[in-house]
Amino acid sequence: MGNARNFAFWIVLFLLILALFNLFSNGPSAMNATAVSYSDFIKSVEAGEVTSATLDGEKVRYVGEGGTVYSTIVPGDARVTDKLVEEGVAVKGEPQEQSSFMGLLSLLLPVIILIGFWFFMMNRMQGGGRGGAMGFGKSKAKMLTEREGRVTFDDVAGIDEAKEELQEIVEFLRNPQKFSRLGGQIPKGALLVGPPGTGKTLLARSVAGEAGVPFFTISGSDFVEMFVGVGASRVRDMFEQAKKNAPCIVFIDEIDAVGRHRGAGYGGGNDEREQTLNQLLVEMDGFESNEGVIIIAATNRKDVLDPALLRPGRFDRQVTVPNPDIKGREKILGVHARKVPLGPDVDLRIIARGTPGFSGADLANLVNEAALMAARVGRRFVIMEDFENAKDKVMMGAERRSMVLTDEQKEHTAYHEAGHAVVGLALPKCDPVYKATIIPRGGALGMVVSLPEIDRLNWHKEQCKQQLAMTMAGKAAEIMKWGEDEVSNGPAGDIMQASQLSRAMVMRWGMSDKVGNIDYAEAAEGYQGNTGGFSVSAHTKELIEEEVRALVQEGYDRAYQILTEQKVEWERLAQGLLEYETLTGEEIKRVMRGEPPHLTDDDEGSAGEKTDDKPSVIAIPKTKPRKKPKSEGGMEPEPTA
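^ thats the sequence. predicted structure below, dont judge the formating
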């Protein structure tokens, strides 16, 4: 159908060009000639007023006085050529202008074009085309089949519970009679909820791959346009396509773009997004049943979805897809490392233990960075050193060795980071120190990275206080070494991190006796886009600020006291950082004891065993659980002018 329309379009275009060519082929004089009678033409010839004439079949065009062009029709029996020659008029002959067919065609062509254009537009409006001006009401869902890369549960790792939840849907699609015999009905939909990068899209594709059914994919933003009703039309068209290919799976990514609470916008309930959501609700559980069509949607903002979208009968399964644990991370690394040649020293379990909080996308990026580093130096396979360097790059940023620092700047950075490390090692509930460096990375002149022993699931009050002390240790170290007047802007990142943690303790976690067990985060100005101001009394606001300040100050005083008590160890570590630039956890302890950082051959075996048992992960206080923080304890931002 589409090829026939294209062929007809080119035929009409060719005829139009041909007619225009014939119309203009005789030049502008043919169009501007003044028609006169044959008798007036003969009089002008006999009077010597005609200077030249052009004969075109039965028509004569001639130039009269003043250069005016005239035209006349010659009778069939007239001998006009002899007459013109006798009078000395210059005569020129041309082929006849056009046939009767071409003349008729030139008259009918505009009508043909208008009729063809009308049929074309009516065909588009009735669904004959999927694109163009009238095709914007058609669904943009793309259908993926096994030919484009089949994904199964073997390609998904680290989210075993989520796979088990969706295994039932696969069984429904493979053998629906098994459940219908007992009165069971196929689920209408499954909602995948989890942080970004945890594999929600991959999991949905694996369900289609396991069941061997077509897989339609579309984004929530593809429904919404500036014209009201277009999104609803696309929803209807998407379900029509799905019914034709049933049983199948329709995957809507980022459904929160179209599924937010109704009545919260400025359209009074008639805006485009709400109309689209209404149509989606009707299609999922309306009067017409969509047998064999399963909707799988993904979002990381379940809290903003409309309650009608979440009820049973629409999304019968709500599957949580969290960040993987240590076993899950090891399996995910194994999946991504299939295409990477690994060296004999690579232990994926050690890498998994060193990357808590990493999502599946983060781990894929880690494996890719390690492969790139190995290729950069010309190795034939990836070794453990490449993974360690890639992990440091992902967590701390790339090294900026080309950045020139003065001796004074290096000294400030060394004492600052040594303060973080000494306090972190002195406090038992702080995460163990993994690495300290004064090499600029990312936006920091230096940093100390600490490691939790296990995956961090929650925070306790004393643990938060000790974390505040470690965070404020950098500023305490600078003041101890150079005095309050010489403190730099290096602790700016520490102050920001400490403020976030202390505010979370006071305003969200109920860890302040004076403020009490009240959540003030939602009322805070600027929190989650709130622009209505801090909707609490002035006294409460002042009390909150006092408690936040007291917690930060308590952490600073604690860090200052520890550095005073362990001044010798602190000085040793600072000098060790100036000499070696980067020290690992065991090397830090050896330098603080006054020993050389590098192990001798006799101790390498035992120390190596300790290092293998030591998880290398980064401690990140989750002051904002909806957003993965990027800063670490002891991170020092680069000073700016």
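Confidence is low (pLDDT under 50) at residues 27-31, 126-134, 526-532, 604-641.
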